[in-house]
Amino acid sequence: MEKILLDVNIAETYCTLMRDSTHRAGTKNIDSLSLYYKTIFDHYHVSSDDFSKSLAWYKNHPEALDSVYTKMIARIPALNILAGK
Fold this sequence. Notes:
Elements: H1 2-17, H2 30-44, H3 48-59, H4 62-79
Helix pairs in contact: 1-2, 1-4
């Protein structure tokens, strides 16, 4: 779940910060986000329904979700996305 959530969070952030002629920064580009979600789910071989069910379970078990996010956050520096590399 941590890899999926990391990719989903990166996609959400990117689609919020991305600007083009029809979307200003701070507004989610829903069309792009939908495509990113599909790509992420296909990559991990999960359906959007499976992801939603898993996320609902984690929301009801905040200690487990906190553990996933702790591991997820630890992965970010290795991605070099924040350093622009």
